[in-house]
Amino acid sequence: MMQFIRERSKGLLSFLLMGFISLTFALWGINSYFTGRQDNAVAKVGARNITADEFSRFYQQQYRQVQSLYGDAFRPEMIDEAQFKQKVLDAMVADAALRQHLIQNQMIISDPQLAEAINQLPTFQQEGKFSSESYQQWLKTRGYSSAAFESELRGSMLTEQMRMAVRNSALVTQIDLQEVVRLNDQQRNVAVIAVPLASLTGQVAASDDEVNDFYIKNSQDFQTPDRIRVSYVLIRRDALATQLQPNDAMLRELYAADGKRFSTPERRHVRHILLKDETAAQALAGRLGEAPKKFQDFARELSQDPGSAVKGGDLGWVEPGMLPLSLDQAVYAAKAGEPAGPVKSSEGYHWLLVDAIEAGKQEAFEAVRSKLVEEYQNERLAERWNTLVESVETASFENASSLQPIADLAGLPVKTTSWFSREAGEAPANSPRFRQASFTDDVLKEGLNSDVIKLDEGTIAVLRLEEHQPAQTPPLDQVKAQVKQAFQRARAAEIADQRIKEAEEAVDRGEAPPQIASKIKGNYRELGWIERQGNNNLPPELVEKVFSAPHPKDEQAAHVAVTLPNGDRTLVLVRQVKNGDFKAVDANTVTQIRERVSEMRGEQELAIYLNALKKSMDIKTYPDRL
Question: CB neighbours of 481 closer than 8 A, spacing ≥ 6?
């Protein structure tokens, strides 16, 4: 039911980017929103410079997520790098424009909303609970301060709220739903007249003169392709990690230098009541003193924080530093079960209740040893990798006639590929980037090392020519059987096309399809009623033509010619059309259709909104810096 709608959604790449980008802007990696060197900017959006480093980090995040989505089936050539980069840049520009617009209009995310969001992020949880250790570790490995991250997350939450508000504004009428069902569940009564190509090919006579003439006119079709073998050195970033093995002394030094990361601070479960007016907040003291156990009821009744009020003021588990300073100090000074307040913050006046306390603990060195090793390797891997790539580039340039200095530098052997062409080859020549570099003039004509080839985000290679076999056309006597077969197939296709044309003319004259099929020496078959989906036994090319054909008129079948992947020519006859019946669709399916159509329209309206917003701002992009 939903396939018809999905097929009319945006392309795969746009869909992936929409999902990944909306989920990961919070982890983008911007330390200060209105900063960035202009000379290193890939885009300037109003007062905001998006630097090349920021773009690179975010691009790599998206690239890795696509890799993760496809798993072992992923191949670098599945991504059009230029298009992918442009999509990522467009998304970053749109986010920067939206964020500035919201900030200028004084829209904010409150402190309690921010604290709850950090608490709920799966990245920072262990065994279903917020982990200060995971949070601090994440900040450290990405070079964040907590203030910078929380500022960025606050901005990301703000833009996502606005995005969701626009998406959810899309309206779907009953007429819209009926139209979707009418088309999606439509059935068509179909018959086909087919002319199989294989049966004609064997009947085509081929004289020596015809074969020779066909060979001369189509000699390029019988060329053996350009083939080469190359030597190469392939370097993977992941392999460098095994070379980075710290000893116990180094690990204990790391543990001691940052021991707080391996201690879990005391956690407190907090509820609050937010009031904007100080007098009202002071007046609440008496009621709370008389009935402290009704704190949740008072929160639902009085709190002006809509996010937590419905949950009895629940802010979840908090740790030192998660709340603004005044609230943080009050929470950790409060006694369990006793309301504390009112406490002033930028949001207003808070009454606080600590209703549970969980003591902190310190993890032993041995318990975190493997984590320390991983951190040590990760921290040094990026630096080691960048240094190695630069060294390889230098070595390849300075020793353009040999790969051995590069192999020595990386501690890897020089390997040789099997034969491959410009179009295909076995690994690593199954990569279009590898093949493209292999056929450059520097490699093929000058005999030099290639430039450093970036096969994916963590793999590079350098290659040089080993052996070359230029494209050539073999003599006719070597490929005569192949040429004869190609001639027969080409002639059979012409005959089949002519017979289908005769069949179309006969249908228009009102002749009976079975007799038409017999007259053109084809096959006639009744397919009956077929659906838009669920026809796995029929070629998709045929089904597509069936449902793109016009409706029959005056009991005269509509027809459309189809060439199937195997070369067979087919005339599709659409005799009746039965539209989908909205009344026959169950309520759950209608709900699913409504949600999907609403989602599609919401995305369209969001795109229109963001485009209008971008047009109102001064935006410059520098694609050459990507």
Answer: none
Q: Which helix (H) or strand (E) holds 393?
A: helix 365-398
Nearest Cα to 152, choosing from 81, 96, 233? 96
* Structure-token match 């402190």, residue found: 111
pLDDT for residue 455: 87
pLDDT value for 56: 79
User: pLDDT tens for residues 269-278?
Assistant: 999 999 999 9
Q: Which CATH number is associated with domain 3-171+604-625? A: 1.10.4030.10
Q: In angstroms, how far is CA 125 from the centroid of its own chain? A: 24
Contact (Cβ atoms closer than 8 angstroms) between residue 619 and residue 93: yes
Question: Strand pairing of 459-469 and 453-456?
Answer: antiparallel
Order across the sheet with 558-563: list the strands. Answer: 523-531, 187-195, 569-578, 558-563
User: Does residue 513 surpass a pLDDT of 90?
Assistant: yes
Alpha helices in 43-145 (DSSP H): 52-70, 81-104, 111-120, 132-141
Both structure tokens of 517: 């099929």
Q: Are 52 and 78 in contact (CB under 8 A)?
A: no
pLDDT of 214 = 95
Q: How far apart are CA 81 and CA 231, in angstroms?
A: 25
The pLDDT score that the predictor gives to residue 33 is: 37
Q: What is the pLDDT of residue 477?
A: 92
Check: CB of residue 420 under 8 Å from CB of residue 426.
yes
Is the four-CA dihedral 376, 377, 381, 384 of positive or negative sign?
positive
CB neighbour list of residue 176: distance below 8 Å, 6 or more residues apart: 597
Q: Please check whether residue 92 is in contact with residue 58, taking contact to mean a CB–CB distance below 8 angstroms.
A: yes
* 87 secondary structure, DSSP code: H
Q: What percent of the chain has pLDDT over 70?
A: 92
Contact status, residue 547 vs residue 186, Cβ threshold 8 Å: yes
pLDDT value, residue 313: 92
Residues sharing a CB contact under 8 Å with residue 167, sequence separation 6 or more, in sequence order: 599, 602, 603, 605, 606
Name the least confident of 124-138, 261-275, 305-319, 534-548: 124-138
What are the extents of the domains in the chain? 3-171+604-625, 186-223+477-578, 227-245+373-469, 266-359
CATH class of 266-359: alpha beta
Furthest-apart CA atoms within the chain: distance in Å: 110
